[in-house]
Structure to design on (872 residues):
């Protein structure tokens, strides 16, 4: 353990493999608490790496990680790139535009071509829910979902959980019993929300989704969380350990078909409730799902006044990018309860752990 | 200390003796003494047999032969302010309301600009406090500018005191937007009030699609245009209701229904347990499309009266009578019968005037170009008596229920918080005692002790003739001018203060 170049703290060889048999991380749904804790404990070990002067371990030396970002991303791509580099892997990049994708190739063909070049892991982001799942059925290398449509964003869920556990002193066990997390805002369009709900529930926390019924329909309760439409009543009810403020995904409300809610849409008609009608709305600045940003911010924005009514110790999270003044006020985003930048830092350790464990499992 | 004049109109304490007190909310129907003090109901007790005047009241009214009802509530009126002040204002519209026995009205948002945000809701409450003779509660527009393409600021309007949502005057036609609206308003607890009219089926329509329209060469307005929306909305409501466990779907209310098929659809939806309600309007309870052709004689005939002499020469041909132009249109006798049946069997639980004042220049034009609608507040009660009580369709307690606690529940005015938002213009000398107690213990629509003393004294046997020239409304567009009716409000109290007194109340 004397040198930094030969060992990986907290991740002894093979230790996690029994508990992490998965070649791919496509979502947090269905993962056992033990598997989640393996990733989180592994991440806890890797977190230390970022504090060293030489921020690198050799765990994936000689391996190749391919970023397949069919949908644009800045921070997630940077985070995965840096995570792979800290594990000493080589990183190649493919983005949606300017590639074969633009020439009409299917995602599976693109993935098979990349794999044929000798790739050990693929990090896939796609605007269509389920795209990484299709790829994973056809390739043999590790596949990590970096966000698929309105479905899941499992590494974001894990880093949110890691941050919550750290804030509440649960790093030893990652047992979240007794913690209560409010996920606020655009739940139906959010892959972050789904990964949070699945992961938090598996680890013993309770989750309440908050938003107008068009963004937080009662049908979400099928996922095991509760749903509340009155943010103030929820805050005054007490007991919140964290609030996770989601951005309004205007780009997902307009322009595309009614696929917003997937299987948990409003009523028998399913998905169409929030989706398609774009009449009269300016793309990017308003949503058909609620009347105005002004009304949304007054009802669901985390203002300093609302934040002041949260219990002592409750933290404020945001997966970014933030719309300051809409879902979160400036002084709250930068305030003492905010752990938003800590989330970003923890994301690196979590992604190192996921890449490490999935590549290791793929080799078995 | 109030002077003598104030004490007469606004007695600090008042005893209404030996009235038939009817309060469906508390199941009351008996000859009672109603004590009012400081703007609130103090007690409703069996009438004292004593002939001596009781002491301890500023004023005692002998109400023998009168009905004392909770103040009547009309959940559907057009007060035209802002933007249409030449036809009506909150002041004149509420003067008409109290003359008709109404102590609270809900005004529709099709003003100019529309009542589609919280500032406009507050404007209505402010103007009410400055000018109104009774309580006024605004219904907020469902879509921005009532254009039907994006939701209005529904949650903020609800916070500001809107009592329901509607694009009345227009139908919310887009099924996607309607589903979204029904979903979005759930947390407000308020109802959606739909003006059921599929617009693509009524382009160029001026009257009911039937034999009269065919003869007169006017664009027909099919029943289907209404029934299709009622049926569709019930399906949308079911979808919202099925969205999750344990959450009630919002109330869905059909405004001014006009045809038999709609009554059937609502009857079935209610039987299936959906929170669907519907209102009927005086003109749809009494008149048919024949009035467009034959005018006053057809009105008189519909009311079972001989036509007045000299109204219209028999040879004059069709009248194209714009006072019979309504939206939705007057339909056929079979529709009127179906609506009466709907009232009788409990399918229709609310009566609403759709009071729609218009200036003469908007009615004195070609039929196709004329505005839709008629005034209603000052003739409604007598027309309800004529169409519902006289033929025995329903009895008095049921009529009072349809005019008080049912509309109160529709608009959540049975809740003290919302009820307390509206107070009419103060009467000098009463401010010291007539202030709203905080918190108010009861909402509107009941005679429960400590509720506001919003009361309507009805003389069920008083005969009178409708004279549009004497109407308090700023507009005169009523097809009932000259008709003889029986029964009317002769005293209307809002918060214990007389806001309307008929001559016949003097000396009692």
């Amino acid at each position: 353990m004397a040198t930094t170049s030969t060992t990986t703290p907290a991740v002894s060889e093979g230790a996690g493999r029994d508990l992490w048999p998965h070649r791919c991380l496509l979502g947090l749904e269905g993962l056992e608490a033990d598997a989640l804790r393996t990733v989180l404990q592994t991440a806890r070990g890797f977190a230390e790496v970022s504090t060293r002067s030489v921020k690198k371990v050799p765990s994936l030396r000689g391996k190749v990680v391919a970023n397949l970002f069919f949908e644009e991303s800045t921070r997630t791509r940077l985070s995965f790139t840096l995570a792979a580099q800290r594990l000493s892997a080589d990183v190649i990049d493919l983005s949606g535009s300017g590639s074969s994708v633009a020439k009409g190739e299917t995602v599976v063909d693109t993935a098979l071509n990349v794999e044929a070049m000798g790739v050990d892991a693929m990090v896939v982001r796609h605007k269509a829910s389920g795209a990484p799942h299709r790829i994973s059925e056809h390739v043999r290398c590790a596949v990590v979902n970096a966000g698929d449509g309105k479905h899941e964003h499992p590494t974001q869920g894990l880093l949110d959980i890691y941050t919550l556990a750290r804030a509440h002193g649960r790093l030893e066990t990652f047992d979240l019993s007794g913690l209560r997390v409010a996920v606020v805002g655009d739940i139906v369009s959010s892959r972050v929300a789904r990964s949070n709900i699945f992961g938090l529930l598996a680890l013993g926390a309770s989750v309440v989704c908050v938003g107008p019924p068009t963004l937080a329909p009662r049908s979400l309760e099928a996922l095991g969380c509760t749903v509340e439409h009155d943010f103030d009543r929820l805050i005054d009810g007490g007991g919140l350990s964290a609030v996770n403020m989601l951005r309004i995904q205007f780009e997902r409300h307009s322009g595309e078909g009614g696929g917003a809610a997937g299987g948990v849409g409003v009523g028998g008609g399913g998905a169409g409730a929030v989706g398609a009608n774009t009449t009269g709305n300016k793309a990017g600045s308003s949503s058909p799902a609620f009347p105005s940003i002004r009304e949304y911010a007054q009802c669901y924005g985390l203002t300093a006044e609302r934040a002041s009514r949260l219990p002592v110790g409750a933290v404020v999270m945001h997966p970014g990018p933030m719309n300051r003044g809409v879902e979160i006020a400036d002084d709250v985003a930068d305030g003492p309860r905010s752990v938003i930048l800590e989330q970003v830092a923890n994301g690196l350790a979590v992604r190192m752990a996921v890449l490490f464990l999935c590549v290791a499992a793929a080799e078995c | 200390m109030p002077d003598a004049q104030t004490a007469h109109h606004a007695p600090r304490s008042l005893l209404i003796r030996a009235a038939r007190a009817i309060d469906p909310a508390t199941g009351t129907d008996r000859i009672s003494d109603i004590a009012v003090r400081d703007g609130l109901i103090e007690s409703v007790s069996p009438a004292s047999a004593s002939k001596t005047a009781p002491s301890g009241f500023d004023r005692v009214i002998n109400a023998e032969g009168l009905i004392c009802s909770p103040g009547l509530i009309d959940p559907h009126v057009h007060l035209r302010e802002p933007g249409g002040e030449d036809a009506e204002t909150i002041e004149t519209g509420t003067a008409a309301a109290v003359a008709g026995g109404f102590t609270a009205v809900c005004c529709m948002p099709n003003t100019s600009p529309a009542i589609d945000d919280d500032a406009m809701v507050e404007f209505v409450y402010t103007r009410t406090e400055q000018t109104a003779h009774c309580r006024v509660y605004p219904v907020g527009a469902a879509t921005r500018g009532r254009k039907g393409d994006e939701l209005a600021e529904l949650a903020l309007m609800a916070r500001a005191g809107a009592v329901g949502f509607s694009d009345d005057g227009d139908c919310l036609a887009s099924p996607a937007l309607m589903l979204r609206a029904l979903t979005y308003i759930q947390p407000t607890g308020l109802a959606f009030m739909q003006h059921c009219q599929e617009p693509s089926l009524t382009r160029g329509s001026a009257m009911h699609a039937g034999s009269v329209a065919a003869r007169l060469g006017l664009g027909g307005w099919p029943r289907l245009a209404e029934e299709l929306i009622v049926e569709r909305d019930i399906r949308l409501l079911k979808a919202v209701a099925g969205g999750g466990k344990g959450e009630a779907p919002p109330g869905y209310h059909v405004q001014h229904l006009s045809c038999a098929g709609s009554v059937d659809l609502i009857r079935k939806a209610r039987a299936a347990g959906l929170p669907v309600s519907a209102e009927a309007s005086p003109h749809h309870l009494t008149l048919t499309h024949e009035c467009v052709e034959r005018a006053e004689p057809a009105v008189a005939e519909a009311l079972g009266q001989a036509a007045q002499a000299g109204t219209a020469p028999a040879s004059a041909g069709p009248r194209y009578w714009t006072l019979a132009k309504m939206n939705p249109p007057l339909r056929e006798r079979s529709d009127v019968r179906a609506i009466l049946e709907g009232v009788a069997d409990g399918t229709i639980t609310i009566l609403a005037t759709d009071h729609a004042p218009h200036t003469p220049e908007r009615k004195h034009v070609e039929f196709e170009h004329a505005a839709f609608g008629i005034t209603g507040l000052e003739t409604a009660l007598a027309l309800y008596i004529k169409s519902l009580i006289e033929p025995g369709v329903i009895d008095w307690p049921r009529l009072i229920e349809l005019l008080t606690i049912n509309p109160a529940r529709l608009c959540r005015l049975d809740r003290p918080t919302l009820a307390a938002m509206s107070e009419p213009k103060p009467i000098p000398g009463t401010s010291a005692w007539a202030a709203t107690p905080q918190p108010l213990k009861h909402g509107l629509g009941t005679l429960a002790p400590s509720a506001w003393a919003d009361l309507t004294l009805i003389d069920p046997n008083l005969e009178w003739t409708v004279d549009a020239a004497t109407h308090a409304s700023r507009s005169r567009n009523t097809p009932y001018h000259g008709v003889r009716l029986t029964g009317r409000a002769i005293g209307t109290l809002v918060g214990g203060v007389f806001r309307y007194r008929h001559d016949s109340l003097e000396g009692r």
